[in-house]
Design a protein that fits this description.
Chain A: It holds the Pfam family BPD_transp_2. The complex is a heterodimer of chains A (355) and B (260). With 355 residues, chain A is mainly alpha-helical. Chain A has 15 helices and 4 strands. The two termini of chain A are 17 Å apart. Chain B is built from 9 helices and 10 strands. Chain B is α/β, with parallel strands linked by helices and 260 residues long. The longest helix of chain B is centred in the middle third of the chain and has 14 residues. The chains are: A mainly alpha (355), B alpha/beta (260). Bound molecules: adenosine-5'-triphosphate (ATP) and magnesium ion (MG).
Chain lengths: 355, 260
């Protein structure tokens, strides 16, 4: 299938799960009432794209970057600062994008050309240093970024909850908020399909060759520093775009929602859980992780109460909602242990060489 | 050297590399001619592989120059030398282990076709690259193994794949580093036939590092001998093999006795 760039899921179970995820995301506004499900669904979309772009680096080229949230943050802050400073207009959105994306691309280009010439560990250290500096910068330049408080802003008229397009469609009021959600859904789907195209292109095949044996790729005539740098730039562009969408959804950009290293850690976990070097893994990883993050606590609360009512010993304490992080941790250890190649790798079965 | 412009020329001038105090290649000056297969012989550790690494750009010399097609390429990076037409098959098999045999060759074909940064179309739509890779695999009798991972091949097949990668680059200069080492007897002819076929093209320079004297005798037009990094003999196969310096230095036979 051309839209999948000739790289289908290659597993019936995986296809079904992916279709289910996409369908549920597409109908969320109609079947799950309330703000929370829509927030969770938007976050899944945004993180699926963000994690897929990280997979381009980690899974396909084998380079470890700690600067991915920085690019995500650049996108978030660019659109937030523009909307905050210029007021809620489309011109402000465009300004944020026109400044944010090239800034992210240039920074990725610079970091790549400077540090991807040598061993991968150097690149990892440089990205760590640059991302830390950026985090400090974002909180220090409070006149611009709002410091620790971040920047809250209003969206253009069209995207506001108060703007109603259809009063009642299948019992749902179609407003600006729902339009924003669908912009995010379509935008993220386009980015993921774009990444799928890139990894299955002749260029993408060279990335895998570099991961496998960079020395040999060079000996074949590939100037690998450029391949790695372009991959870094593409990943940064997608991350920054995801950041733009995230800020527009939250109507806010701050260190905790777009820059912190804990997001970097979440991205790493999602890519590993889903399965590295597959792109599809990003969708699965983001869905599992964000669902767990949002609903595990409630689920445990219910289970704990049920166990208490049934008079079971020990269980109510173990399942207490306050222990949810412990269980989340255990879930990850278990998933990495049982699915070392991620959910996608597991569903695809025994590893076959890439053709 | 008075070679016409369209003919490939390769020359090293006083090429030297030191690793700490150890001089692995020591002032080697040698010009290679198109249509000629030069065998490079010498005992283990003589510097043959290092000499190749200097020519193909994996190592930078401490002193000396490399001239290729009239240009000084001493400072050129390895990928650019490959693109210029220097092909290299490695002594220690050097593949993309988890990619399929076909993909290994296809990547080399793709590199040679100049398709480096095309990211907009799926690789499968470049049927021409896949077909070319398959043809090359057939030429080294690996066609039947095209979809297994390179790492799953037998040692002999990996050696053949190593050669196939170089063939895919269609270079002007072929550098074979012990291509048949460790192969079983029945696998050797495939590679030797291939080299013999390359020899029929009068525009190619072929360099062959080889320990097996019968192979050298049957294929070489010229032999150069490296010993402790120095070029100690250079000439017609018969005369070099018979020379005292080779008898002593390489074959470990006292001068006067004939080579085996
Ligand atoms: N990167 C390196 N660093 C340090 N020493 C090296 C390096 N590469 C090669 N050498 C040394 O240079 C010398 C020549 O090695 P080289 O591999 O060129 O020999 P060779 O003639 O190819 O031997 P063989 O027939 O065993 O393949 C050896 O003593 C080797 O240890
Ligand atoms: Mg050697």
């Amino acid at each position: 299938m051309m839209i999948l760039s000739g790289d289908p899921p290659r597993s019936r179970a995986l296809s079904l799960i992916l279709i289910a995820i996409v369908v549920v995301l597409a109908i969320t506004p109609f079947v799950f009432p309330g703000a929370k499900p829509l927030n969770v669904a938007a976050k899944i979309c945004i993180f699926a794209a963000l994690v897929a772009s990280y997979d381009l680096l980690l899974g396909y080229t084998g380079t470890v970057s700690f600067a991915h949230t920085m690019f995500y943050g650049i996108g978030s802050y660019a659109v937030a600062i523009a909307l905050y400073g210029m007021g809620p207009s489309w011109a402000a959105v465009a300004t944020g994008i026109v400044i944010g994306l090239p800034l992210a691309a240039l920074l990725a280009l610079g970091i790549g050309l400077f540090s991807l010439r040598v061993e991968a560990i150097f690149f990892a250290m440089i990205t760590l240093a640059v991302a830390s500096a950026f985090l400090v910068l974002a909180s220090q330049l409070s006149w611009l970024t709002g410091g620790e408080d971040g920047r809250s802003f209003s969206l253009p008229e069209l995207l506001r909850p108060g703007t109603v397009f259809i009063k009642d469609l299948f019992g749902v009021r179609i407003n600006g908020r729902i339009l924003t959600y669908y912009i995010i859904l379509v935008g993220c789907a386009a980015m993921i399909l774009g990444l799928l195209r890139v990894v299955n292109s002749p260029f993408g095949r060279v990335l895998q060759a570099v991961r496998e044996n960079r020395f040999r790729a060079e000996a074949l005539g590939y100037r690998t520093v450029f391949h790695l740098t372009y991959a870094n730039v593409l990943a940064a562009l997608v991350a920054a775009s995801a950041g733009v969408l995230n800020a527009m959804w939250l109507r806010y950009a701050g260190p905790d929602t777009s820059l912190s290293f804990s997001i970097m850690l979440d991205i790493l976990l999602m890519v590993v859980i889903g399965g590295m070097g597959t792109i599809y893994g990003a969708i699965i990883g983001a869905t599992i992780f964000i669902l767990a993050q949002n609903y595990l606590q409630a689920l445990m609360g219910a289970a704990s109460n049920a166990a208490a009512e049934a008079g079971l010993p020990l269980l109510p304490g173990l399942l207490h909602p306050d222990r949810w992080l412990l269980w989340l941790g255990l879930l990850f250890v278990a998933s990495v242990y049982f699915f070392p190649t991620g959910v996608v790798g597991r569903l695809r079965g025994a590893p076959k060489p890439a053709e | 050297m008075a070679t016409p412009n369209n003919m490939t020329t390769l020359e090293t001038q006083s090429l030297t590399i030191r690793f700490g105090g150890h001089v692995a290649v020591d002032g080697v000056s040698c010009a290679f001619r198109p249509g000629e297969l030069t065998a490079i012989v010498g005992p283990n550790g003589a510097g043959k592989t290092t000499y190749f690494n200097l020519i193909s750009g994996q190592l930078r010399p401490s002193a000396g120059r490399i001239l290729f097609d009239g240009a000084d390429i001493t400072k050129m990076t390895a990928p650019l030398r490959t693109r210029a037409g220097l092909g290299r098959a490695f002594q220690l098999t050097n593949l993309f282990p988890n990619l399929s045999v076909e993909e290994n060759v296809r990547l080399a074909v793709q590199a040679h076709s100049g398709t480096h940064y095309d990211m907009l179309r799926p690789w499968r739509t470049r049927r021409d690259l896949i077909d070319r890779a398959d043809a090359i695999l057939d030429s080294v009798a690996l066609g039947a193994r095209r979809s297994v991972a390179a790492t799953a091949l037998s040692h002999g097949d990996q050696r053949k794949l190593e050669v196939a990668l170089m063939m895919a680059l269609e270079p002007k200069v072929y550098m074979f580093d012990e291509p048949t080492a460790g192969m079983s007897v029945d696998e050797v002819p495939v590679v030797l036939d291939l080299i013999a076929r390359l020899k029929t093209d009068p525009s190619k320079i072929i360099l062959l590092v080889e320990h097996k004297m019968d192979v050298v005798r049957s294929l070489a037009d010229r032999i150069i001998v490296l010993h402790h990094g120095k070029l100690v003999a250079d000439g017609q196969p018969a005369e070099v093999i018979a020379s005292p310096v080779v008898q002593e230095a390489y074959l470990g036979i006292a001068p006067g006795k004939s080579a085996a």
